[in-house]
Amino acid sequence: MVDYAGDAVGIAFSVLFERVKDLVITVAAFRGQLKKIESTLRSIEPIVNQIDKYNNMLECPQEMRPIQVLLEEGNGLVDECSKIHKLNFCKKQTYSKKLTKFNAAVEEKFQIYLPLLNLVTSKKTSMDVKMIRKDVREVKDLLTTVLSSSVALQSGLEALDNLSVPAAPDFIVGSEVKASLSLLRERLLEEGASVTIVTAPGGCGKTTLLKKLCHDAAIEGKFKDNIMFVSVSTKPNLTDIVQKMCQRNRFKVPEIKSEGDAVYCLQQLLSKIGQNPVLLALDDVRKESESIVDKFVCDGIKDYKIVVTSRYEFPRFSPVHRLNPLTHDEAVELFRKCVTVNDRSVAAPDTQLLNEMVEHCKRLPLVIKVVANSLRGQDYAFWRKKLNELNEGHSLLDSDKEIEDCLGKSLDDMAGDPSIKERFMDLSSFPEDCKIPATALIDMWVELYKLDPDGVRAITDLHELVSRNLADLVVTGKDSSDDHESYSSHYYSGHFAQQHDLLRELAIKECNRGEIEKRDRLILELNGNKFPDWWSEQKQQPLGARLLSISTDKTFSAPWPNLKLPQAEVLVLNFQNDMQSKTYTLPEFIEKADKLKALIVTNHSFFPAELHNFHVVGANLRRIRFQRVTVPFLSMGKLCLHNLKKISFFMCYISQTLTSNDAKISDAIPNLVELDIDYCNNLTVLPDDICEIKPLKKLSITNCHNFSALPEQIGQLVSLEVIRLNSCIALSRLPDSIRSLQNVKLLDISDCLNLSALPDQIGQMVNLNRINMRGCLKFSELPRSIVKLRNLKKVICEKEKAALWGLLKGTLPSLNITLFEEEPSLDWLE
Prior knowledge:
This protein is an alpha/beta fold. Helices cover 37% and strands 14% of the residues.
């Protein structure tokens, strides 16, 4: 055994290396991953062998402990793998992923030492030493910064739909789906380029099959990070997809001005990543969008697979795989499962009735789930009534029409609980295949239905939709500091609702019942500058809609015609901007919508769009949410928003240019209760006069990596109850005046990398009951006044920091120290 320098690191490396070399021979189940680890360890062996020399040269011995811990953890991991039985497929899949992540972590950790290795082997001058020392420190700072916020970064990328594969159900239903999964897996594991079409009626399980396929261990093992999942929908935007593909693969995102440019950029991208196998999943391609599949085909990539799901067959492409509905017995089994109440089997009134009901559902999983849920706990008479309705509505038209009729009958059964049907229809306010932020739904529903301002009832209604299979809930991240009862709107910042396209079509159909002027909801989807016939100055009558949603595509450029909205309370504006303008103009009719309470503006393009016509924002608004737009935050003082209670900025560019004519923000929004800023990376500070907004209760500035300082006068915000600053990695201190905030209950400083201490007099925050300080790497001691926090009930931190708090258990007997042990995601590492 080689005698490695670096004492503890050398020993840990030596033990791990010898163990891996042994297991490569004896453990077949993980041989592929172990060989890669062996290769990595062999390549860094010269570095480990002289690591003392490197550290003495660059004076950075602090790197030793993390390396030692990483290698020791790796030794434990490979030891666990050696004990796993070859037929334990579940554990094999789990530990295969762990080994892959460990190998990536080792490569990343030792990447910083490569310049030193070059220096030693080439014997460079002292000037070169200084330059390399500077470069290495810069790389080290960058890696530390990125690693510290990796979990939050990954959640944000998922929230932006960065082509990651969505989570798949834990189980799949039906022998047909299982057989299809096996067949498609075999095709994808073959070498070569191909386009495979998976076709079936809507609701048959095509998307579920595709998700399961992309998460298959063998597929992940072959394609690794080169798996991209694209929801194509009715209006595919090639430019947006290509930009997301560039981001997904960590290339600079190009500004694309035309579809021709998009095709060129796509070909360039594929040629770069095509050295390794590539899998592109195109989900839900419509008949009229067949041409977009052609654009993703790229000659010259030797192992490039495209899998397309569609309700339609595309004859020009092969092979075509037809996914059939469930067998009758499988459909009956699923129906029984979905009609079960409280985990207890519930028998149908009689077998014949159950069989007929299943056949009316066309043996389609989606339809079965929705219909069965509507029959839970109902008696024979109700089942018979439902069957009669389905028989009366039987149609000889196309299958989609029959499916829609069947689903519609299930919606009619919500008459006893109309609020759920209303919430279901509200989801159609957002574009197809869109991840709808739960916080946006809270803003809508709180104002539209006069619910509690914290959104507790709104979230309950969302979960009810999910339980009825009328929506899916996608969770991209969860902050363990948040309590879903006390701080619900914050707790759900990483939660998104999604609606199956069939269900969305049904929701829009329900919204479109009756005369336009009398509809309660108006959902408008504009193509280019084509407005509906009724929307003109000559024909227009006042609209009675309380909820108005307008979606425009990137070709929209016309001035907004006037709309009379005397009853509108919520306005949802969805848009895409092209690269020529990068602007979006708010419609003038907003200014005259006197009852408007909530405004939600979402840019679904890749780059932010500059928001124009900001002055039309009405004085009666209570909630505003902006996503991916440039907003003149400091110029808001010119507005009069005295009723505004909450304003949210997500992925926005917040203009902080201040002119002498700008009025104070506190004068414009004097009654603001909640300020939420997330992933706004250009934000560096808050204006001082924001501290004059006395009613402010919740201040959330999260994932703003350049935010460096709270106002020194923050102690004036005496109503504050919640302060969230997680992942503000440039924040280095908290103002001393924070001690005056005696109503604050939650302080979240998690992943604030540069924050090294709590304020000396934090003990004056007498109502503080929860602190989250996970990822605060620089903390080494607590202020003496901490013992005065008699109401402190919970602290979340890593094991190393728990020792500091453990010393206070005698003084603070109610304190619960929760260890945060979630492993940071390394999937984004190159």
